[in-house]
Design goal:
The protein has 317 residues and is α/β, with parallel strands linked by helices. It is built from eleven helices and 14 strands. The chain has two domains: 2-220, P-loop containing nucleotide triphosphate hydrolases (Rossmann fold, 3-Layer(aba) Sandwich); 224-295, Alpha-Beta Plaits (2-Layer Sandwich), CATH 3.30.70. 36% of the residues lie in helices and 29% in strands. The protein has a six-stranded mixed sheet, with helices on both faces. β7 (153-157), α6 (165-178) and β8 (183-188) form a beta-alpha-beta unit. It starts with a strand and ends in a 5-residue tail after the last helix. 34% of the residues are buried.
C-alpha cells in the first residue's frame, strides 16, 4: 500500500531524513516511533505531499507522490500534529467544507458525514463551534476530516498529544477500530500508545531507520537476557541457591522483602528461554509457595532506549 525508498530531506545543510526505507502493507497499523526531532513529522509531511523530498520516492497505492500527486493524495487521510481546524465554524460546517475540498459528490455527503461522525463519536456536538470543544473532541474532529472521502490510508501524527488519560484511551480504541477498515500509520513518541495499537513498529532516530519489526520481534532481537520476577514464601537464601542451580538461569537475587515471609526475587536467564516451568517445579519440590511469577521481557520502552542510545554512540543497527 505504501512504499518509501531511499528518502532524503535536507533543510539547507541540515540532514533531517537520511535514506529512509520502509513499506506498509494493506490493512496494517504501523507505529512510526522516534524521539522529538528524529524526523517523524518531516517523513509524514513528505508521505502526504505537504513537503517535497530532496531525493528518493514515495508511492501510495502504486502512485508516486511527486509524479502523480492527485492520485496519491486521494488515497490518504492526514491528521497533522496540530489539526487544521477552523475554530469559528461548527463541526458540521467544517466537515462539509472538507467534503467540498476533497470533491465528495453532493448526493453522498450527508450519509458519509453521518457515518463518520457516528464512528468518531461527535454526532452530539455537530452543531457546536469548534472553538468551544474540548481538546479531545477537537482531535476527534481532526480524525473525522481525515476520514472524509473514505481514504484507504490514514496518517495520524501524534494523535493523543495534550489529551488527558481518559481521552487517550478513547482515541487509542478509535484507532484500533479504524484499523479494521483502513491502513494506518501512527506517528508518535509515546511508547505505550504504539505498543497498545500497532502490529509493527518502525523506529527512527536522527533521521535514519534504527529498527523495523513487530513489538514482540523487537523484544526478542534486542534482548540480551530475559528476566522473571518471582514472589514467593520461604527462606530467601535457600531459594536463591536453588534458583541459581536451574539450567538456563544466569543470576537470581533478592529484589525486595515483603511482610509475612514473602519476598520478591529477580531472575535473569538466557535470552528467549522460558524458565518459569522449571522454577515452579523446583519451588514445589521444596514446598515453597509461589505467590506470583511473571516474565519481565524488555518493553518497547526498553527497546527504544537501547536502539536510540546505540545511535548516540555512533553504532547504527
Amino acid at each position: 500500500m505504501i512504499e518509501i525508498r531511499d528518502l532524503v530531506k535536507y533543510y539547507g545543510d541540515i540532514l533531517a531524513v537520511d535514506h529512509v526505507n520502509f513499506t506498509v502493507e494493506k490493512g496494517e497499523i504501523l507505529g512510526f516511533l522516534g524521539p522529538n526531532g528524529a524526523g517523524k513529522t518531516t517523513t509524514m509531511n513528505i508521505l502526504t505531499g505537504y513537503l517535497s523530498a530532496t531525493s528518493g520516492t514515495v508511492k501510495v497505492n502504486g502512485h508516486d507522490i511527486l509524479e502523480e500527486p492527485h492520485e496519491a493524495k486521494k488515497s490518504i487521510g492526514y491528521l497533522p500534529e496540530n489539526p487544521p481546524l477552523y475554530l469559528d465554524m461548527t463541526v458540521m460546517e467544517f466537515l462539509r467544507f472538507v467534503c467540498e475540498l476533497k470533491g465528495v459528490p453532493r448526493e453522498k455527503r450527508i450519509k458519509q458525514l453521518a457515518e463518520i461522525m457516528k464512528l468518531v463519536r461527535i454526532t452530539d456536538v455537530s452543531g457546536r463551534l469548534i472553538k468551544n470543544l474540548s481538546k479531545g473532541y477537537r482531535q476527534r474532529v481532526g480524525i473525522a476530516q481525515a476520514l472524509v472521502a473514505n481514504p484507504e490510508v490514514l496518517v495520524l501524527d501524534e494523535p493523543t498529544v495534550g489529551l488527558d488519560p481518559k481521552q487517550i484511551i478513547e482515541i487509542r480504541n478509535l484507532i484500533k477500530e479504524l484499523g479494521k477498515r483502513h491502513t494506518v500509520i501512527l506517528s508518535s513518541h509515546i511508547l505505550p500508545e504504539v505498543q497498545a495499537v500497532c502490529e509493527r513498529v518502525v523506529i527512527i532516530n536522527k533521521g535514519a531507520i534504527a529498527a523495523v519489526d513487530t513489538p514482540d520481534g523487537l523484544s526478542r532481537k534486542m534482548a540480551k537476557t530475559s528476566k522473571v520476577q518471582l514472589s514467593a514464601e520461604g527462606p530467601s537464601k535457600e531459594i536463591i541457591q536453588k534458583l541459581r542451580l536451574i539450567p538456563g538461569i544466569r543470576q537470581a537475587d533478592l529484589f525486595a522483602e515483603k511482610e509475612n515471609g514473602i519476598n520478591i526475587y529477580e531472575i535473569e536467564n538466557e535470552p528467549n528461554l522460558d524458565v518459569r516451568k522449571q522454577i515452579f517445579f523446583e519451588m514445589a519440590r521444596n514446598t515453597w509457595p509461589i505467590i506470583e511469577m511473571k516474565s519481565m521481557d524488555p518493553t518497547l520502552e526498553d527497546i527504544f532506549l537501547q536502539v536510540t542510545s546505540s545511535y548516540q554512540t555512533g553504532k547504527r543497527g
